[in-house]
Amino acid sequence: MKRRSVCLASFVRAAILCWLSLWPAYASAQAPITAPQQVQVFDTPNDGGGSLTVQWAPAPWDGPDIRYQVLVGEASATDPTTFTINAEFPANTKYVKDTKTAWWTRRSDKTWHQAIIKSTKGVEMKDDTTYAVAVATVQGDRRAFSAVYVATPAVDWFNWNQLNNLIIAVSFGGLVFYAISHAKRNNIFLRRIPGLDAVDEAIGRATELGKPILYLTGAHDLHDPSTIAAAVILGKVAKRAALYETELIVPHREPITMAVCQEITKQAYLEAGKPDLFKEDANFFITADQFSYTAAVDGIMLRKKPAANFFMGHYFAESLLLTETGASTGAIQIAGTDADHQLPFFVTTCDYTLIGEELYAASAYLSKEPVQIGTLRGQDMGKAIILSVLAVGTALATVGVVTGAPWPQIVLDLFRDLK
């Protein structure tokens, strides 16, 4: 009898504990649900059209067991139960702070819920067409609808989220113009670039040996800044070659680049006062195929044995094949590229290598023109400002972690919003 009493008491205790554990879920399931409050529906600002934005205030019961539905219907519809579900998500997700918008364009607090209505399989959002929108709170098979709102998507002509980029671009542009005007009035020091100092040495050696100069402009066409830089440097090399009356060979793998380089070379010979020495076939097209071009250039190196090889522009796997062949002929080799994956090969096999932005600075270094020097100085000043901002942000983040102070995080949040 005593054993039966103990078993009965244990059973009752277990039943009570089970009921207590299930009661919150049961009570939550039976509690009435409330429709979303303070709903706002409007055309998505700063976009190309075809979307609406819905925002509403968070509720105390927001959690993973409750969901929100965003429903869309025709402008004349008034019953949200007939609308098409455009989005559905747990009630503890989709906030204003999760979207990539700047703080100066936010209409609501960043803790509010936000959903973007776009074209789906059920609804096609068209510009200048009015739609009816409602938001529902969903728990199980129960739904509570907000009022029905209407809005019209439209195209915006200006993206105010990018206002900071406009200000930065205008500021840096003004900085460059100031540096150019300063360069026209004063001499600006440029750091010595050994690879460009060796240009005269390489051309002079080719002249002494009576051998040609080989110049390559890379694998890309003129849409690539490195190819443009290579073409500019070609003009300086061609002018020196004209003065020294040294043969210049410029094989190409892109016809448009060849045509532009022909004009650059012709102008260089005119400036040097030796137009009669200019040869139309100094620039010639070989092929657009990567390794066929490489094999042809290697053949030129082995047959004519140029005393100076210039590799300027962007290169791929052919870089090592070209420079190894040139090194085997005993030529002075000067390379310049912004292709970081090929820099190790150029550094290993060439006498001088222009690394990264040195290729772009080469034109200003060789010509000493105030506009180019001022542009280079303005870019350097802009980089210094960016590095200073990064240093300040790093220091603030470190102070915030070490001291636990809230103000560094506030400043960092402001900088993040300004990106």
What's the count of strands? 14
What is the fold named in CATH at topology level of the largest domain? Rossmann fold
What is the N-to-C order of secondary-structure elements (H for helix, E for strand)?
Answer: HEEEEEEEEHHEHEHEHEHEHEHHH
**Poorly predicted spans:** 22-30
Structure classification: alpha/beta
Number of helices: 11
Mean pLDDT across the residues is: 86
Rg, Cα atoms, Å: 35 Å
Beta content: 15-25%
Distance between the termini: 77 Å
Q: Which geometry do the CA atoms define? A: elongated
Task: Give a quick precis of the structure.
This protein has 419 residues and is α/β, with parallel strands linked by helices. It is built from 11 helices and 14 strands. α4 runs parallel beside α5 (255-271).
Considering the chains and any ligands shown, give keywords for the structure.
elongated, six-stranded parallel β-sheet, 419 residues, Rossmann fold, five-stranded antiparallel β-sheet, 3 domains, alpha/beta, Immunoglobulin-like
Description of the molecule:
The chain has 419 residues and is an alpha/beta fold. It folds into three domains: 40-151, Immunoglobulin-like (Sandwich), CATH 2.60.40.10; 160-185 and 372-417; 194-368, Rossmann fold (3-Layer(aba) Sandwich). Helix content is 46%, strand content 17%. The chain contains eleven helices and 14 strands. A six-stranded parallel beta sheet has the order 11-10-9-12-13-14, sandwiched between helices. Strands 3, 4, 6, 7 and 8 form a five-stranded antiparallel beta sheet that branches. A hairpin with an 8-residue loop joins strand 1 (40-43) and strand 2 (52-56). Mean pLDDT is 86; it is low at 22-30.
